């Protein structure tokens, strides 16, 4: 990074709020206005995640559950169809143009509006930026929580791999995160905002670490939440097609990959719990825990212990 690029907001990002940095591919006008009016269907399945908490994985699990008797269909999807992130595009941000990215299409217009029901609608947005109808129609919504240290290391990897984010050095990235200045903002605030809904019947709160530890039981729970009782055989199939190795192989040739990834980028990195240990220094870990536990306490969600 050069000196100019180190100034906030980083290249390829902008401030949506004084302390909320967004990637330039997420259009500011859309976030401030039109997304609020997105037409929610009663049978939509929303998926809410902080970036890198397992969005792609859970989207695939939802797709497998919804198409359990026709799993071949999963192989036909482009990346945009696999993870149709609600807020993605449209964008012609100058930073993107400079990097030769001409036109980032709106996922709403190119995928979601024409998708057959039931749709999967993933988002990383805070509730206040979500479509108003999410809170009136209350479609089934799955929330995936992941321990924030692993999310951060995964997001750092993402900066190196995707064409829409600037590659940064770890120490600079870590400090920026501690100041609340990585994309989509701080995790405790995100968690607190969504945790409010955790006991509502339309909302299912799950954890990446549980999905890893007990994939079959976790998929069964999600299926049940969606009103589907899968047989043992169906559950085994869903576990198989959503395993890390299976998805990694499938994603190597998925349509649309080059649009998102740098030539050396990988779509799925490691998919393990605790990889932060390979990146955090002792001092960074101490500072992180002090800040996180303190902030979670201030927000009243310090009972949410993580498996780090
Ligand atoms: P790592 O970078 O730690 O490997 P998202 O889809 O929200 O961007 O999250 C990406 C993270 O989920 C990455 O974590 C990725 O490897 C992990 N992931 C993707 N598919 C997975 C799977 N089938 N099983 C476990 N982890 C998976």
Question: What are its keywords?
Answer:
single chain; 308 residues; alpha/beta; Rossmann fold; two-stranded antiparallel ribbon; 16 helices; 42% helix
CA(first)-CA(last) distance = 30 Å
Principal-axis shape equals globular
CATH class: Alpha Beta
CATH architecture heading = 3-Layer(aba) Sandwich
* Distinct small molecules: adenosine-3'-5'-diphosphate
How many distinct domains? 1
Helix proportion: 40-55%
With strands numbered from the N-terminus, the spatial order across the biggest sheet is 4-3-5-6
CATH topology: Rossmann fold
Q: Look at the structure and name the CATH superfamily.
A: P-loop containing nucleotide triphosphate hydrolases
| Helix-and-strand structural type | alpha/beta
Count of DSSP H/I helices:
16
Based on DSSP secondary structure assignment, what is the total number of beta strands? 6
Short description:
By secondary structure, this protein is an alpha/beta fold.
Structure notes:
This protein is an alpha/beta fold. The chain has a single domain (3-299), classed as Rossmann fold (3-Layer(aba) Sandwich). The protein contains 16 helices and 6 strands. The mean pLDDT is 94. Bound molecules: adenosine-3'-5'-diphosphate.
Question: Topology of this protein?
Answer:
Blueprint: H1 3-6, E1 13-17, E2 20-23, H2 28-32, E3 45-49, H3 55-66, H4 79-82, H5 94-98, H6 107-112, E4 120-123, H7 134-137, E5 140-145, H8 148-161, H9 170-178, H10 187-195, E6 203-207, H11 208-213, H12 215-225, H13 232-241, H14 244-251, H15 257-260, H16 282-299
Parallel strand pairs: 3-4, 3-5, 5-6
Antiparallel strand pairs: 1-2
Helix pairs in contact: 3-13, 12-13
The protein binds adenosine-3'-5'-diphosphate.
